[in-house]
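Long-time lurker, finally posting.

We've been working with Membrane protein (Actinokineospora globicatena) and I want a structural starting point before designing mutants. I don't trust myself to interpret raw outputs, so I'm hoping someone here can both generate the structure tokens and explain anything notable. Sequence follows.
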Amino acid sequence: MQRARAHGGWSRRAWLALAAVSIGGTGIWVMHFVAMMGFAVDGTEIRYDLFRTVISLVLAVGIVAIGLSAVVNGRAGWGRLIGAGTITGIGVASMHYVGISAMRMSASVTYAVTLLVLSIVIAVVAATAALWATFNVRGMAATVAAALIMGVAVNGMHYTGMAAMEVTTPTGRTTAVTGLDAYAFFGPLAMVLGVLTALSLLAVGIGSTEKEIEEDLWAEQQLRTLLGDRADG
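Top reply, 14 upvotes:
Generated this for you. Predicted structure of Membrane protein:
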């Protein structure tokens, strides 16, 4: 994200979009959905509403983009960071619960309020820490450590939210479950996100670093100053 901050205009927007897809889509949403594929309820199959599932993906990418943009485009400070982290965290929690609502099964779902609120708090704290790390952590070792911490935090939010669920299956004969099998659409979506993430990594690999951009800007400024002095002379 240092590249996004160093650039302006369309270049900045492109870097922000790539980061939002990588973090919100491949990182957060794919983790959420893979974990959901491991969820089972005795006595009923689980299928998914395609529209709500896609909405949860759009929420994950869109809210992360808003959070990153808020930090990149404004003055650095704890107030802006906490505000962006709060918005992003609530958005991530919304993605989770919209994804849960996409499940179709012959059972009813309620939530334990305390654990539900705790999952949102974890999401806000994790999002704030992730935004801080995105713009402040440098170096491979520190980046890997930050990624591991964020991974644990996001998983903690997910499983706290799952622990808040109370699923009740009806007694007697169950009704038919409508919707799509998870594997019917997860594969194509994951493939698209994987390609976009690969393109992001390629762009990071061949793109100029923040230091190189600053050096180019400094050299350009020096050249303009030199040409201006000669014109005045």
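Before you design anything, note these points.
Helices lie at 2-6, 9-37, 50-73, 78-101, 113-136, 140-164, 182-206, 210-232.
The radius of gyration is 22 Å.
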